TrEMBL record:
Biological source species: Meridianimarinicoccus marinus
TM stretches of this protein: none
Key word Oxidoreductase present: yes
Protein family according to the UniProt entry: Belongs to the GMC oxidoreductase family.
UniProt xrefs under PANTHER family: PYRANOSE 2-OXIDASE
CC cofactor: FAD
Occurrences of domain Glucose-methanol-choline oxidoreductase N-terminal (ranges): 196-297
Pfam family name, one: GMC_oxred_C
Region (Disordered): 133-154
Biased composition (Pro residues): 144-154
Protein name (Swiss-Prot/TrEMBL): GMC family oxidoreductase
């Protein structure tokens, strides 16, 4: 490629979606990815390897607030973390964009409303070929068009669960999924939730968005390229990017730079690009870079009947949003409940201290749920750097609401015919939708980027990943990240690059 007009740092959900949307404009786009392509291998359907080892993880070490080392569950490869995602592609609820009172506090709201993002949700659902069914979810926001495809079908055990929950007056609904179920199962009889996409059955950032972008001759991808710092010049414009490549250190330039390395790494890169003019890091006049880190409050909840086996293969098709907007103390929100991919004995053995026979007995009889509650923004919950190493000081919020959600779910599952209920909260080693470290807003003194994702401080720098989310909501953010990135792409296309 000749000199690019746009450089995108990161090939995950945000970067790939932006590139796919901007590519038809003819702009020369170069995508930089620090990892490599994930190819089919014997380990990609092996639950013992996936859940019991760090085989697919980066091996990168972060520190917590107390200085303890830990290996995060983040992935650096083409497609980013989406290679392992559960493929749930939810729209944020309309109420998520306005200030909303929770048990743990009130969210700040967004500088845009749901109506602004709705057309881009339509585009993102089409790009990721989302399978779903409108009308069953009591919190679903207004839609301009139906889902591109019918929902992934319930397996028999889950169809029975749906009937049991409906009989309790609940409103079970189909999870909107970016999965070609026949193609996925042709590659192996396993769930997709937490399993890597290597054979085209899961529509992730690589197989959907990046593939579309790279179908254009004006888009190129370079792998093995780790960006070390951004360089700022006169007027605050980003004048270069220092990149470690397989051929050595290079400095690349382009009129427009898009940062899409993920909520933690985008913040770390901006902080690590500090210079004499910007001693607190780039894009950080507001002192908000790295702050407001959010990670959903999540628990696994397993419901068992000792005399009833669950032969489901993939399971992840049903959700409950009855308590998304209400149900807690004083009518406050509790969160979302959705099924996990089917837990196996090997997964339980790899992730718990249960004896192997007991783990297999439980897994053979369990229906496996994922309870998720909103984590509220907090300026002291943050990403920083210490001697170049990421330090993650996550200050979990709104936890009593999550405990109330899990308690409510357990009560309902017992009424639905499951006498044994087990639960376990996820810890900081499990990334549950990291977001918020470069929040968008209209006020340059209180936010990092404007409502289009453009830096308040650097006119040719955009951020297009989960870091710009002002709030985490309580549903999976992948579709919202994609929709925001597409909106940013439109803004780049319509903006004078020299401005």
């Amino acid at each position: 490629m000749t000199t690019p007009e746009v450089i995108v740092i990161g090939s995950g959900m945000g970067g790939a979606s932006l590139a796919s949307s901007l590519a038809p404009s003819g702009r020369r786009i170069l995508i930089l990815e620090r990892g490599a392509h994930l190819r089919p291998c014997a380990e990609d359907r092996d639950p013992g390897v996936i859940f019991g080892t760090d085989h697919f993880r980066s091996g990168e070490g972060w520190k917590d607030a107390l200085g303890r080392d830990f290996c995060p569950g983040n992935y650096y490869m083409v497609g980013g973390n989406s290679k392992f995602f559960g493929a749930a592609m939810y729209r944020f609820r309309a109420q998520d964009f306005a200030p909303l009172s929770h048990l743990g506090g009130t969210t700040p709201g967004w500088p845009i409303g749901y109506d602004t993002l709705a057309p881009y949700y339509d585009q993102a659902e089409a790009l990721f070929q989302v399978r779903g069914a409108a009308g069953d979810d009591p919190t679903e926001p207004p839609r301009n068009r139906p889902y591109p495809h019918p929902p992934v079908p319930d397996e028999p055990m889950i169809a029975d669960l749906r009937r049991r929950l409906t009989a309790l007056g609940l409103h079970p609904s189909a999870i909107p999924l970016a999965v070609d179920i026949d193609r996925w199962l042709a590659g192996g009889q396993t769930p997709w939730d937490g399993f890597p996409e290597t054979r085209g059955g899961k529509l992730d950032a690589e197989t959907a968005a990046l593939a579309k972008a790279l179908s254009h001759d004006n888009v190129a991808l370079r792998t093995g390229c780790r960006v070390r710092r951004l360089l700022a010049g006169d007027g605050g414009r980003i004048t270069g990017i220092e990149v470690d490549t397989p051929e050595g250190r290079e400095t690349l330039t382009a009129p427009v730079i898009v940062l899409a390395a993920g909520a933690v790494q985008s913040a770390a890169l901006l902080l690590g690009s500090a210079d004499a003019e910007h001693p607190a890091g780039l894009a950080n006049r507001s002192d908000q870079v790295g702050r407001n880190f959010m990670n959903h409050n999540c628990s696994a909840v397993l419901a068992l009947h000792p005399l009833r086996r669950n032969p489901s293969i993939y399971q992840k098709t049903l959700a409950l949003n009855d308590f998304y907007l209400t149900g807690g103390e004083d009518g406050t929100p509790l969160g979302n409940v959705q099924l996990l991919g089917k837990i196996s004995g090997r997964i339980l053995t790899a992730t718990t201290s249960l004896p192997r026979p007991l783990a297999h007995w439980i897994a053979a009889r369990s229906v496996d749920f994922y309870a998720m509650s909103e984590d509220l923004p907090n300026t002291d919950s943050r990403v920083t750097l210490r001697d170049g190493q990421v330090v993650l000081d996550w200050k979990r919020s709104n936890w009593p609401a999550h405990e109330a959600l899990v308690t409510r779910l357990k009560t309902l599952l017992r009424k639905a015919g499951f006498p044994i209920i087990l639960s376990r909260a996820f810890d900081r080693r499990t990334p549950s939708h990291q977001c918020g470290t470069a929040r968008m807003g209209a006020d340059p003194d209180a936010s990092v980027v404007d409502p289009f994702g453009r830096s308040h401080d650097h006119p040719n720098l955009f951020i297009a990943d989960a870091s710009v989310l002002p709030t985490s909501a309580a549903v999976n953010p992948a579709l919202t990240i994609s929709a925001l990135a597409m909106r940013t792409a439109d803004h780049i296309r319509d903006t004078d690059l020299a401005a």
